[in-house]
Design goal:
Elements lengths: L1 H8 L18 H10 L6 H16 L7 H11 L5 H8 L6 H7 L8 E2 L3 E2 L2
Antiparallel strand pairs: 1-2
Helix pairs in contact: 3-4, 3-6, 4-5
Length: about 120
């Protein structure tokens, strides 16, 4: 996603206070465009998941992020809404793989298997 960010913005946009943990260069407009390319329309539930992913990656940037740990953290955070099943309804391409593509952070290794589709 960072190459898409650089291509569209040509630099560093100002920070959006609604997304305090957003990666550098990310904007909601980029997320909307990435979602559109995936056939998704962003709802408040999508934005909540985007913020959760951004916060998780910001808090774990000093360590290598593990797919299973992100998956489990999302399942726990969204437990009341149905956990990971709820997130798969929002992001049918995978809450970690497709979610990261929209939220901005680089998906952890194993989140996307080009031979079999998204698994995370």
């Amino acid at each position: 996603m960072s190459s898409l960010i650089e291509e569209i913005t040509g630099g560093e946009p100002s920070r959006d206070l609604r997304f305090p943990y957003a990666p550098a260069g990310w904007t909601p407009a980029l997320a909307i465009e990435a979602a559109r390319q995936d056939g998704l329309e962003m709802s408040e539930e999508h934005w909540e998941a985007v913020r959760a992913l951004q916060e998780y990656f910001a808090r774990h940037e000093a360590v290598a992020v593990n797919l299973r740990e992100v998956h489990d953290a999302l399942d726990e955070k969204f437990h009341r809404q149905g956990g990971i099943k709820h997130l798969y309804r929002l992001f049918p391409g995978g809450p970690v793989a497709q979610g990261c593509r929209i939220a901005g952070p680089k998906a952890p290794a194993g989140a996307v298997d080009k031979g079999f589709g998204s698994v995370g």
